[in-house]
Design goal:
CATH topology: Rossmann fold
Radius of gyration: 16 Å
CATH architecture: 3-Layer(aba) Sandwich
Number of strands: 8
Largest sheet: 6 strands, mixed
Distance between the termini: 31 Å
Structural class: alpha/beta
Strand content: 25-35%
């Protein structure tokens, strides 16, 4: 597969997953646009490019990739394949059977983790995931979203004590004049 420019990636995501209308987001906020993450995450060429770009965020200290269920899992798995690093699946809710762990996969104390996110609005879910991993003994190197909607995620994640980056923002996906 050939690599895409940032503009090409934005165009591919826009064409696959950018919707306009009246939507209620996970945060409860209303929005005139929606980025249907599953429509872009399930496209092999787009997912491969996202994973390649996420892999660029890994340094020689990174020991694991993590993604919160459900949307972050495909991105974490794809990034794991590119980097050769193991990944974790962070649960939205702790299961009450088996090991009752809040994450799946092996984690070592003091792991340095790249936490990946699909679409960040307020950052609430990824902050919860980062805090849980930190409480379990990991260090979150940074949180990287595919798309920052520009509605507080960056500020909230930073205020929570984590580094936040995104590959794209909502303006990258909007058509001119929309």
């Amino acid at each position: 597969m050939t690599t895409m420019t940032r503009t090409q990636l934005a165009e591919r995501i826009r064409n696959a997953a950018y919707l306009e209308g009246d939507f209620t987001l996970r945060s409860g906020r209303k929005s005139s646009f929606y980025i249907d993450k599953y429509l872009f995450e399930t496209q092999p060429e787009i997912l491969a490019e996202i994973a390649r770009r996420m892999a660029e965020k890994v340094d020689d200290q990174t020991s694991r990739i993590a993604g919160a269920e459900l949307g972050g899992v495909a991105i974490a798995a794809a990034t794991s394949l590119v980097t050769g690093l193991p990944f974790l699946i962070v649960r939205n809710a702790r299961k009450d059977y088996g090991t009752a762990k809040p994450y799946e996969g092996a984690m070592e104390h003091a792991d340095r983790i790249l936490l990946v996110e699909d679409v960040a609005t307020t950052g609430g879910q990824v902050i919860e995931a980062a805090r849980m991993l930190t409480q379990a003994g990991a260090e979150i190197q940074r949180i990287v979203a595919v798309v920052d909607r520009g509605q507080g995620a960056s500020e909230n994640v930073t205020t929570a004590g984590f580094i936040f980056e995104s590959l794209l923002n909502a303006d990258d996906l909007r058509l001119p004049g929309s």
